[in-house]
Amino acid sequence: MTEYPSGPDFDLSLLLEIADGSDEFIVDSIEMFLQQTPESLQQVIDAINVQDWPTAGAAAHKMKSTLGFFGMLESQALIHKVELSCKSGTPNVTEVLAQYNQVKANMAENTEKLLKIKADAGA
């Protein structure tokens, strides 16, 4: 595993630095991301759908560090906006949904990249 895709919402530099050459660490980190992130996204939208703003804000907050770890800085900034809006108690629902949907779209694209990296590693 030597070449990694990068882009405005995908940069594995931090992960690679922490992994210090360990493909196993990279694969394990990707597996954890692929397992936990969809669950976290679902928690956010479930809470938004029932207008449970504290839960939506807390679920969004939980995602920020993971997104940063994988260099998904655009998604991290968007989910932070979702968090702050929800924690305000009176968010603009249309705006929050648009931000959430952009994060979800980014995650779909980034998941494909992560699956390819994992497959290339033979995992």
From TrEMBL:
Q: Which SUPFAM superfamilies match?
A: Histidine-containing phosphotransfer domain, HPT domain
A Pfam family name for this chain?
Hpt
Output the PROSITE patterns linked to this UniProt entry: HPT
Q: Which domain of life is it from?
A: Bacteria
Annotated positions of the Phosphohistidine modification = 61
Keyword field? Phosphoprotein
Where do the HPt domain residues begin and end? Answer: 22-123
> What is the official name of this protein in its record?
Hpt domain-containing protein
